[in-house]
Amino acid sequence: MDVTLIHQKVVWVILGMGLVTYVPRWFPLVFLSRRNLPQWLVEWLDLIPAAILSALLVPELFTSGMPRHMSLWQPELWVAIPTFVFALKTKSLGGTVVIGMALFWLAQNVI
Amino acid sequence: MSDSVSPPKKHNLKMSILQGLSAAWPICLGYIPIGLAFGVLAQKAGLHPIEIMLMSILVFAGSSQFIAVSMLSTGAGAVSIIITTFAVNLRHLLMSSSLAVFLSNTTRKKLSLFAYGVTDESFAVNHTRFSRNNWSLDQALVVNHTANIAWIVSSVIGGYSGQFIHEGAFGIDYALTAMFICLLIFQLKGRFYVITAVIAGVVAVTLSLIIPGSSYIILASIFAATTALGIKKWMLR
Description:
heterodimer, A: mainly alpha, two-stranded antiparallel ribbon, 4 helices, B: mainly alpha, 11 helices, 0% strand, globular
């Protein structure tokens, strides 16, 4: 392995990326966990996971491409329906992952 | 707040590791193909395997790593790549805030270690278990670091040999989507959570179509949680 191929610029970029990624992960954990948070903030933070998960998931189902456009006929969306039902019935994370993958594979290769 | 959360139960180390691993495997399953794909792209963009490993260790945030590599290959400046990374990863601020509620009796050292591993996926898995009150920081750390190792190893392997791995094998591209579907269902604990998720989904789709990048995640999340809390206060006053 020729280490002379490591670029100084790339190393600086990586160090900078590491710093600006770590600080937002670290700051609330250290500074919020030691305080008595006001009740409204606790209730707000309690809603955040549902909000983030939905904001991460739903655009992956309904849109595609770069820049994004609506894409209603992609397997991502309609495989999500039986996967959703399975997850709702079983509440099994591992099972849902396996079923989702199998259905997605079927949708891409068989249908 | 701390008095409403019962202290975490005592677990021995071996149990914590086993429970952490059993919670982490769906994340690893999802990270492996993405890590491989990242390694392949990074190598094609001219990154040395050591640089790929360094980035996966120091940054450990998938989408921002893909964006950084594509910016590097188009010759973008260091500062603009770092600012973009900051914007893409700012959503972790919300996740860490939400996790902080469960971690009031913890040393700063352990929190600093835990902070390193907060990703979309580890956050979702750990938050679900913390909120069921049967999860400790030790188990959460096992989840974070198992996922971390899967990410680092798969991205380095991708950097060496990714071109040999068939894309789309076994539907593995859908692993994280399926995981998010199930984790979202775990979060729908009442009507206000459902309202939050519906608002977040609609707003996120709309914003993702009109603004470039991934800032729609944080904007839609803040808007949805705030609106749903407003509705809750208004209905229950």
